[in-house]
Amino acid sequence: MEVPPGEAKEPDEDESTRGQRREEGLRWFGDFYFRPFLWAFGKSGISPNVITILGMGCGVVCGYFLAVGNVPLAAVFFALSGVLDLVDGYVAKKLDKVTVFGSFLDSFSDRISDAAIYLGIAVLYLRRGEGVYVGLALVLLVVSFLISYTRAKAEGIGVVCKSGLMSRAPRFLVLGIGLFFNGLSPWVLKGVLWLVAALSLETMVSRIFEVWKGTRA
Predict the structure, then answer these.
(1) Collapsing DSSP states into helix, strand and coil, what is residue 11?
(2) pTM above the 0.85 mark?
(3) CATH top-level class for 16-216?
(4) Which positions ≥6 away from 49 have C-beta within 8 Å?
(5) Residue in 85, 88, 106, 110 annotated catalytic
(6) Do residues 147 and 206 make contact, with C-beta atoms less than 8 angstroms apart?
(7) pLDDT (tens digit, 9 = 90+) per residue, 194-210?
(8) Is 31 tagged catalytic?
(9) Cβ atoms within 10 Å of 172's Cβ, excluding its own
(10) Helix 100-127 crosses helix 131-156 at what angle (to 10 degrees)?
């Protein structure tokens, strides 16, 4: 069945719908635990685009602190970036300021934050002489971009594409755990990187397969 460009096909119950439920569940988790921040920003009247840019800035600062080896401070700015990423969408809806440019800016800032963080991790391990993890960080950078590109391109041709275990929200959550608990052992972050890499590859392949199925229908 042909679907006009820009109009997404309904997802199969056993594929995209599970991905949608995971994303909705993580959003609910974030809204519940960070409700005071959401309320404060909602009352402030700050433009959601400004909040998006602040979140991107925190992601870049996180990458800087990773590059210089200050993982605890990097974890703090990583968390701030995540909170602001939740807040901008909430404020946009609260103030009825949801715009096409805002959606574009949100996606653009996510890519900048991802690049800064993964490059920061790569530099961290480069300074430590651990080439395997430099390579792993660069693989994560490329795969994270491909996951986002696959979804955007699929939805552009009318295919819903949300399958896989490691969309950006769970990837962000797991990586945050690695950063915050890295002080216990350097193997915490290393283990998290391997886990995120494996599940990110699964997500990329799953989404490519989903697009293949969607374009054959």
Answers:
(1) coil
(2) no
(3) mainly alpha
(4) 88, 101, 102, 105
(5) 110
(6) no
(7) 999 999 999 999 999 98
(8) no
(9) 22
(10) 170
